[in-house]
Amino acid sequence: MAKILLNKENLFYNLGVISEHTKSKDKVAIVLKDNAYGHGILEIATMASEFGIKKAVVKTLNEALIIEKLFDYILILAEKTFHTYSHTFHIALNSLKQIDNLPKNCNVHIKVDTGMHRNGISPQELEEAILGLYKKDIHITGVFTHHKSADELSTDFFWQNTVFSRVKEDVKRICEQLLLPLPAFHSCNSAALFRHTNFDEDMARVGIASYGYLDNANVFKFPKLKPVLSLWAQKLSTRVLKKGQSVGYGGTYTACEDITVSTYDIGYGDGFLRLNERCEYTTPKGYKVLGRVSMDNLSLNTDDENVCIFEDVNTLAKIHDTITYEITTTLSPNIKKEIV
Ligand SMILES: *Cc1c(COP(=O)(O)O)cnc(C)c1O
Description:
Layout: E1 3-6, H1 8-22, E2 28-31, H2 33-37, H3 41-51, E3 55-58, H4 61-67, E4 73-76, E5 89-93, E6 107-111, H5 126-135, E7 139-144, H6 156-178, E8 184-186, H7 190-195, E9 204-206, H8 217-220, E10 229-241, E11 246-247, E12 253-254, E13 259-264, E14 298-300, E15 306-310, H9 314-319, H10 324-329, E16 336-339
Parallel strand pairs: 1-16, 2-3, 2-9, 3-4, 4-5, 5-6, 6-7, 7-8
Antiparallel strand pairs: 1-10, 10-13, 10-15, 11-12, 13-14
């Protein structure tokens, strides 16, 4: 059976580098949305908790419920209705309208739009938001923003930081007037965290770096991290492909001489996307994917019983003209996970 191996040592290494940069494990909120970027939410949450991480970020209430016992503090980014609630939960407020649907007495992190224009209230709406929450006895435990291009060479990063500094001043002033405690402030995802040389916020929301990747790492001299996930496939059958015969849909690979070909139990149905036949893909051991990837299998020029399909998704991200995030997140949640 195909499987995902999760390298605990590498995860701990990455979390070590990250918490050194935040200067405290308590300031790291590991982002576990979308099944921990395809790695398996429960597996990653369990190991991160063992490492000493106390905070997590998820997309939905369902994800929060899966990891509830493992963290003290869970930020839920995108849930609009709550049929159940726990005081470890902190709900992201993405619009003023959402205030009407929040549970009484809950914890809220106000998301402020400092330039990405995706979610969050505008800096001008801060006072209205804080007053609206205050009237409903909702605890404002955080105020945060998100960068639109922390991993690119552009001035937007600095511009958004300036806007967020003003937001912090405004929030402090309004909270003092209302005698409210100061919320936690946070603006960093992985790339933004490592672009700060002297991080001084209350927490950082770290996703991709935990899993061992930082896009454009060379441009910014980011630290080297270690990929956590490797994908393994098992052999289904072996045959000799005679010179002139071709393999798979469309017969896009034709043997120039007699070769041994085996089929392995991974395909695009498992989230290993179809390769463009103009791009060659070679496994870490040097085996070539021959012809098109099918829904449930692919062919390689080997007869090894178990083959590592990838252990670092940077190559595949380039082949598919996408980012590392998409390659791991697309993997089917049904693939069995093993911690090594
Ligand atoms: C997904 C997400 C993150 C994590 O981003 P990485 O680049 O993976 O570190 C942080 N904050 C928000 C709001 C997100 O949606």
